[in-house]
Design goal:
Elements (H helix, E strand, L loop, with lengths): L12 H9 L2 E3 L7 E4 L2 E4 L11 E5 L10 H10 L4 E5 L25 H11 L3 E7 L2 E2 L1 H6 L22 E2 L5 H17 L4 E8 L10 H11 L12 H25 L8 E5 L9 H7 L3 E3 L12 H13 L4 E6 L1 E2 L5 E5 L2 H13 L3 E7 L7 H15 L6 E4 L3 E5 L1 H6 L19 H12 L4 E5 L5 H4 L4 E4 L7 H12 L3 E5 L18 H4 L1 E3 L11 E4 L14 E3 L7 E3 L7 E4 L20 E8 L2 E6 L3 H8 L2 H14 L7 E4 L4 E8 L3 E7 L19 E6 L9 E3 L4 E2 L2 E4 L2 E6 L5 E6 L1
Parallel strand pairs: 4-5, 4-15, 5-6, 6-9, 9-10, 10-11, 11-12, 12-15, 17-18, 17-19, 19-20, 20-27
Antiparallel strand pairs: 1-2, 2-3, 7-8, 13-14, 16-29, 21-24, 22-23, 22-25, 25-26, 26-27, 28-31, 29-30, 30-36, 31-35, 32-33, 32-36, 34-35
Helix pairs in contact: 2-3, 5-7, 8-9, 9-10, 10-11, 13-17, 13-18, 17-18
This protein binds zinc ion.
The site of zinc ion has 7 residues, from α6.
């Protein structure tokens, strides 16, 4: 039961002040806060949310006070064995009898205090209450009283919500964020047992907004030097300046709200709303530094999004939080396009989404909208998964990932990249998706069953990279001088690098360099501007190499759609050469005009233990867009070669498309395998699961560690295994949706 857990919240503010007044408070970057007192360090309990394993959210609507069954809902969440529940406090709509002026009370509130009733019901079940707020919109009465609180269009008109047109968008640079919202937080904090505050929809990781209110115009004039462009455009000096000013304001507001949250309880916290998977514009590294708790509002997928979108979110968040608290929301409703807020999505889809959250080391947050649901099918989906989690909880307390390969997460390229060609020269649908390079590498890594982590491009110092034998760089075109130097140092230390296309061609804002900054590392210099997008070009196999194994029966491999003409800087044997584009139509015209060149399509070099594989074309992106199996094989071969001859720490052999995570846990190790083998893998929703057959595992454990038990937690049975020296070998007979193998 929950109430047997020691709670940090039982340390009162008075006790905290007694401790902290005689001590120096230091916040470590690891899991624990450590207080140093007269030279002696002793750990105090972590804040409650650091130990949180599961949470839930019921999102009230304005009408909910009419009929909401508070105790029924509290019972439901307690039955999921959650640690915390998010309930709506206020912002747009107050669900309690607020006294804060212009804080709109629910029109249906009557004499009820829905927030208060629910908070008490949750507290009675020993669940933490998180006040879910919305800072983004307010009613017309606030607009009339405080016109300066609101965003404006160029013509000065306020910005209405596109569906709920009686609501107006508030401005982050205004007093609404620094005065009104804190006043609301203080009122809620003063009246209710609240353990944290969360804001819906803010700050997000999406593009920056541009507002024309008087406040913002002043900011543009005084701090930016002019009105910034409305679209993301890192080539514009005003955009660059605005990006810095915007991020500063986000951090200022975040810290303010966090300090207000902590006024009553020192272990309270403000949680912003982040997420967006691999497609982020706002700097997640910076946001991760200010966040005590990182919430990714990545609730589901739509359209042609691949199922692993959620696991990618986990990897992005882990790259900046490094083991600190990360939650990811799962929408139990159908958040596809179109969206249905009040009917459940398929159980298989919901289950696989939550499974990715736990596999990638995040905490699941289960979410439903509306207090009086007519569809209740989602309830048991969440309950059965959460109860399974709870009964195996120790194995989800991770100490660290044991991946030994790193993928550079190229955030500034994803946010800002414009290729070297003139704007507009991409043809319509062929316009670059800046995350396609990473997506292609990612899919190849899944097919090759590699175990890897993301590292953020701003986190390439030796202490972050030293545990990885190889760094994989999917067209990180935008890299700072310092980041390039860190990659150079990494290679010089005997480690290996895989990179593609325009990696290091530009600085972090997109200023073009004369040559690749990493030309010396790659052994390749630019010999012309990027060419493409063009199909029907090839790579000719000039001689054998481990990276070109498995292609018996062909002299040609499919070429990338875009390539950078390069020349080798050192005399090295030509392994793959470029066969340039020739017409694909009509068939009479389809023959190579230049069948053989000495232009390298890739350069593979080895210096000591360091292996470098540089592909001059966008083989990763082309693989993702075409699905071409040769390109997938080529990437996997290259990753295997740069990873070195030492056996990987974990290998999983068998049929099926799976994603694998491996963690060192509090009780031992946990191997997570997600079964994506499904006709709905790249277009939702999953309807059912298709079990995969035996998987043979070799798992390297720490020297001297004896494994006593290997248990399949999802199947609920022990597996036979053999240990020889450090290697534990076993077979998983079958995986339906997800399996977690605990080695203890
Ligand atoms: Zn404004």
């Amino acid at each position: 039961m929950q109430n047997e857990k020691p709670k940090w919240s039982e340390i009162t503010r008075r006790q905290f002040l007694t401790i902290s007044s005689a001590s120096v408070l230091t916040i470590s970057l690891g899991n624990a806060n450590v207080y140093e007192s007269r030279g002696a360090a002793f750990p105090l309990p972590q804040p409650w949310y650091a130990a949180m394993r599961r949470c839930g959210q019921i999102n009230f609507n304005e009408r909910d006070p009419v009929a909401m069954d508070v105790n029924g809902w509290a019972d439901y969440w307690a039955s999921l064995k959650v640690d915390a529940v998010l309930i709506n406090g206020g912002g747009i709509v107050a669900f309690y009898p607020t006294q804060v002026p212009y804080h709109h009370r629910s029109e249906f509130l009557g004499s009820r205090d829905l927030f208060g009733e629910m908070a008490v019901a949750l507290e009675n079940r020993n669940l933490h209450v998180v006040a879910r707020m919305d800072c983004n919109y307010a009613y017309e009465e606030a607009l009339k009283a405080h016109p300066e609180w609101f965003e404006r269009n160029r013509d000065g008109s306020p910005r209405r919500h596109n569906e709920s047109t009686w609501l107006f968008k508030t401005c982050m640079f205004s007093g609404y964020f620094t005065e009104q919202m804190p006043a609301i937080y203080r009122e809620i904090n003063g009246r209710y047992p609240v353990a944290a505050f969360f804001t819906n929809g803010w700050p997000s990781t999406g593009a920056l907004s541009v507002c024309y209110c008087d406040n913002c115009r002043r900011v543009y004039q005084e701090e930016v030097g002019g009105i910034p462009p409305e679209d993301t455009d890192a080539a514009d000096p005003l955009y660059r300046k605005y990006y810095a000013v915007f991020m500063d304001r986000v951090l200022q507001v975040w810290r303010l709200w966090d300090s207000v949250a902590k006024e009553k309880r020192t272990d309270s916290v403000y949680v912003g709303n982040l997420g967006g998977g691999i497609r982020t514009v706002k700097n997640v590294k910076t946001l991760g530094e200010v966040a005590g708790w990182f919430n990714a509002d990545h609730q589901g997928r739509a359209g042609d999004t691949a199922i692993w979108d959620c696991a990618q979110q986990g990897r992005v968040a882990q790259s900046v939080m490094k083991g600190r608290t990360i939650t990811n929301v799962t929408g139990a409703y159908s958040n596809s396009r179109p969206t249905w807020r009040h009917t459940a999505k398929a159980a298989a889809e919901t289950t696989m989404w939550i499974a990715q959250i736990t596999a990638s080391g995040m905490v699941p947050w289960f979410h439903w909208l509306g207090g009086s649901p007519e569809d209740t099918r989602w309830r048991e989906v969440g309950r059965s998964f959460f109860n399974w989690l709870a009964s195996n909880e120790a194995h989800f307390r991770n100490r660290q990932s044991i991946a030994d390969v790193a993928v550079l997460y190229p955030q500034s390229t994803i946010a800002f990249y414009k290729s070297g060609r003139e704007p507009g020269s991409w043809r319509g649908a062929e316009r670059a998706q800046t995350s396609d390079y990473l997506q292609g590498l990612y899919y190849a890594l899944l097919e090759g069953r590699f175990i890897f982590n993301f590292v953020h491009q701003e986190d390439l110092a030796p202490e972050s990279l030293k545990r990885y034998r190889a760094l994989l760089i999917p067209n990180a075109a935008y890299l700072s001088d310092n980041q390039c130097q860190q990659i150079r140092d990494y290679a010089a230390s005997g480690r290996s690098v895989f990179a593609t296309f325009e990696t290091s061609r530009y600085n972090e804002w997109g200023d073009k360099r004369n040559d690749l900054a990493l030309a010396d590392v790659f052994g390749a210099s630019i010999a012309g501007e990027a060419i493409g997008p063009l199909g029907n070009s090839y790579m000719r196999i000039e001689q054998q190499h481990p990276i070109i194994s498995g292609f018996d029966g062909t002299n040609l491999l499919p070429g990338p759609e875009n390539r950078l003409p390069v020349r080798a800087r050192e005399s090295s044997p030509l392994t793959l050469s470029v066969v340039p584009y020739y017409p694909a139509f009509p068939p009479e015209m389809v023959f190579p005009r230049t069948p053989r060149t000495d232009e390298p399509a890739a350069i593979f070099k080895q210096k000591g233990a360091s292996r470098i594989a540089y592909f001059a074309g966008d083989i990763d992106r082309t693989f993702w867009r075409s699905g071409n199996t040769d390109l997938g094989q080529l990437i996997q071969n290259a990753v295997r070669w740069v990873s070195g001859d030492v056996r990987p720490s974990v290998s999983v052999a068998g049929e099926g498309v799976v994603e694998v995570f491996a963690w060192q846990t509090e009780p031992g190790y946990a191997l997570h395998i997600l079964n994506y083998t499904n006709p709905n893998m790249t277009r939702g929703f999953l309807r059912r699961f298709y079990a995969i057959g035996p998987q043979k595992i070799e798992f390297e454990t720490a020297p001297g560690k004896k494994t006593n038990n290997v248990r399949a937690l999802r199947a609920g049975r022990n597996l036979t295994f053999k240990q020889s020296d450090r290697t534990v070998r076993f077979e998983i007979p079958s995986i339906v949706d997800y399996e977690v193998i605990a080695l203890t």
